[in-house]
Structure formats: structure tokens, C-alpha cells
């Protein structure tokens, strides 16, 4: 079980943490505030809803990590904001991009921890090409409805700051191989990418194309590393995306309107990217904006001094 309710602490978290509630169990790592496992107590025993990794090891393929203050990539690490040129460190030298922000490999601090919830925070700090102080928090809660993840970002500086966020979540349907599962995405458009994984044109409708997952499709042989948008929301304002096993069980990933984009990625050994112990694996990544949003301006957020942004997403089991 999780630790008893604790007060705020100034000590960096160096271990993993567990929360339980409503038949769900989640494992959280301090590094990257990462979701390293989520499982549900089904009728036949625990069912894995995410790919997993061990505390003290580097998360494979950035699994379960928070991507901020931008998700995905910035072309050449360059962008202009408020008339000022910025040059970020190139963290993806193969493609010459600045990738996934600053916080996925740093330790976050535990703010509160109870049996069924944990909250962590981090100050983004100042970096090469990044003069914008931001404070981020994430709260993980498990209950009868599954896992709910609430993010906040606060501009603690004196000038407006650009901002974007994503989450590198990997989903699975128990122990079934990915190629035996079906995927349904509530997405009407996709953004084409070039060989550097940067936008190569405007969004295009998915209807009638290989990117149309509005009805469930088998994943055998499917290759994806694609940003989707025009997410279809239900009456509660949430988009829902489903991975299902042959027996109908599986995982739903949902996102509130703040996350208007979803990156779908299939890790594939044949492409040189294998998820350890699993081979092919599926990442469904809620994002506030597409790749290179700091240059295109598409769904780029701007936080005024003192302004706070909040976004929510989550996962649940399909019995």
C-alpha cells in the first residue's frame, strides 16, 4: 500500500512510490515523475494497463515520462517568441532537434502522498535558450474510475512564457501481444511528418486512409509515429481511445479538451526500437500541441506572469 498521508517535504524523492484505489495499482517514479506501471485487479488476477519498467533503471523509450515545457520536437532547437530568437540545446542530434523539454530525466519532489494519490512538483529552471521560470505539478489519483492525472504549470517569472505539455504513456491490454489487439482512436485528422519527425504540411483527414482508426483495427503490421488531432469528445468533454485484446478486455486512455493532440507510436524491433521483454509496444501520448508548435504557433500556449494552466487525462480498464 502507499505511504500514509505526509506533509510537504523539501527532500528530493529518490525511490519509487505506489498508490492503490478502486482495484487499481499505480507505480510512480521520482525521475520524470514517471508512471512506471498501472494495473487493475480483474476477475482473473492483475491486468497490466501500461508497459512497465523497474525503479533504478532508465525508462525504455521514455515510457511514462512527462514532456514539458514542450512535447515532441523543436526544429533545429530554434524558435522566436516575443520577437526574441532562442537557441535551445540540441538533444536529438540524429535529427538536429530539441526534444521533449527539460524535466523527463530529473527528479521531482513529493508534495503529498496518500494511499490512493501522490503529487509531485518541479521547477523547470533556466536553460540555454530558455529564460522562462515555470513550476510544474502532477497529481496521480486512483479510484473506481481508474487513474486520473492532473497537471499544472505556473509561470513564476516576470514575462510571458511559451508552453506545451505531453505525456509519454505506453498502453497495453494485459499480457496479449500487441499484434493480437485492436486500436480505436477518436481522431479525425493527422499531421504528416518528414524524415526528421517534423511537420511537412497541414493536417489531413484520416477518413479512408491507412491512418483511420475511428473504427477498431488490428495492429498486426501497423507502423505509427503520428500526431493526430480533431479529437472527437464525448458529452463529458473527454476524448477516448481504446486498445482491446481478442477477448474484449483492454485499456481506455482518455483526455480532457486541454489535450487536443494525441501522438500514436508503435515501438517495433524491425525499426530498431523494441520495448524490452515485449517487442512491439504502443504509446498513446496526450499532447497540448503538435511537434514544432513553438515555430508554427499551432495550439501553442502562452502563460502570463503568475498564470496557471491545468490539464487532465487518465486511463481505465475495459473488463
Describe this structure in a few short sentences.
The protein is mainly β and 319 residues long. The protein has one helix spanning 293-296, and strands spanning 16-21, 24-29, 35-42, 45-48, 66-67, 73-75, 78-81, 84-87, 97-99, 109-114, 117-123, 134-143, 146-155, 161-163, 166-167, 170-171, 182-184, 187-190, 204-205, 217-218, 225-231, 238-244, 250-256, 261-267, 281-287, 301-303, 308-318.
Largest sheet: 9 strands, antiparallel
| Name of the CATH first level | Mainly Beta
Count of structural domains: 1
CATH topology assignment: Beta-galactosidase, Chain A, domain 5
> How many beta strands in the DSSP annotation?
27
- Helix amount, in percent? under 10%
In spatial order, strands of the major sheet run 10-11-12-13-27-23-22-17-20
Beta content comes to: 35-45%
Rg, nearest Å: 19 Å
How does this structure look, described?
There is one protein chain. It is built from 1 helix and 27 strands. The longest helix has 4 residues, at 293-296. Strands 10-11-12-13-27-23-22-17-20 form a 9-stranded antiparallel beta sheet, with no helix packed on it. It has a 6-stranded antiparallel beta sheet with strand order 16-25-24-21-18-19, with no helix packed on it. The chain starts with 15 loop residues before the first strand and ends with a strand. It has one helix at 293-296, and strands spanning 16-21, 24-29, 35-42, 45-48, 66-67, 73-75, 78-81, 84-87, 97-99, 109-114, 117-123, 134-143, 146-155, 161-163, 166-167, 170-171, 182-184, 187-190, 204-205, 217-218, 225-231, 238-244, 250-256, 261-267, 281-287, 301-303, 308-318. It is 1% helix and 44% strand. The chain is globular. The protein is mainly β. It has one domain: Beta-galactosidase, Chain A, domain 5 (Distorted Sandwich).
Amino acid at each position: 500500500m502507499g505511504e500514509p498521508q505526509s506533509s510537504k517535504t523539501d527532500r528530493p524523492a529518490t525511490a519509487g512510490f505506489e498508490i492503490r484505489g478502486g482495484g487499481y495499482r499505480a507505480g510512480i517514479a521520482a525521475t520524470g515523475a514517471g508512471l512506471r506501471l498501472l494495473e487493475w485487479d480483474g476477475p482473473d488476477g492483475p491486468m497490466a494497463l501500461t508497459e512497465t519498467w523497474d525503479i533504478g533503471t532508465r525508462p525504455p523509450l521514455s515510457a511514462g515520462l512527462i514532456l514539458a515545457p514542450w512535447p515532441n520536437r523543436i526544429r533545429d532547437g530554434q524558435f522566436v517568441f516575443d520577437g526574441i530568437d532562442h537557441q535551445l540545446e540540441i538533444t536529438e542530434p540524429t535529427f538536429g532537434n530539441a526534444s521533449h523539454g527539460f524535466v523527463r530525466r530529473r527528479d521531482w519532489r513529493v508534495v503529498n502522498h496518500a494511499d490512493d494519490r501522490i503529487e509531485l512538483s518541479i521547477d523547470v529552471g533556466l536553460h540555454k535558450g530558455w529564460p522562462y521560470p515555470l513550476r510544474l505539478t502532477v497529481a496521480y489519483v486512483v479510484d473506481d474510475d481508474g487513474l486520473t492525472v492532473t497537471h499544472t504549470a505556473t509561470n513564476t517569472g516576470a514575462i510571458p512564457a511559451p508552453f506545451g505539455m505531453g505525456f509519454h504513456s505506453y498502453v497495453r491490454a494485459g499480457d496479449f501481444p500487441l499484434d493480437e489487439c485492436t486500436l480505436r482512436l477518436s481522431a479525425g485528422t493527422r499531421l504528416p511528418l518528414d524524415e526528421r519527425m517534423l511537420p511537412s504540411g497541414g493536417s489531413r483527414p484520416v477518413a479512408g486512409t491507412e491512418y483511420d482508426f475511428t473504427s477498431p483495427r488490428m495492429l498486426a503490421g501497423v507502423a505509427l509515429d503520428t500526431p493526430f488531432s480533431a479529437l472527437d469528445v464525448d458529452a463529458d468533454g473527454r476524448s477516448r481511445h481504446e486498445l482491446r485484446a481478442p477477448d474484449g478486455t483492454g485499456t481506455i486512455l482518455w483526455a480532457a479538451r486541454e489535450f487536443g493532440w494525441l501522438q500514436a507510436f508503435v515501438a517495433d524491433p524491425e525499426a530498431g526500437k523494441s520495448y524490452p521483454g515485449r517487442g512491439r509496444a504502443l504509446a498513446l501520448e496526450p499532447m497540448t500541441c503538435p511537434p514544432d508548435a513553438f515555430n508554427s504557433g499551432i495550439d501553442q500556449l502562452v502563460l502570463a506572469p503568475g498564470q496557471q494552466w491545468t490539464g487532465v487525462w487518465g486511463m481505465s480498464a475495459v473488463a
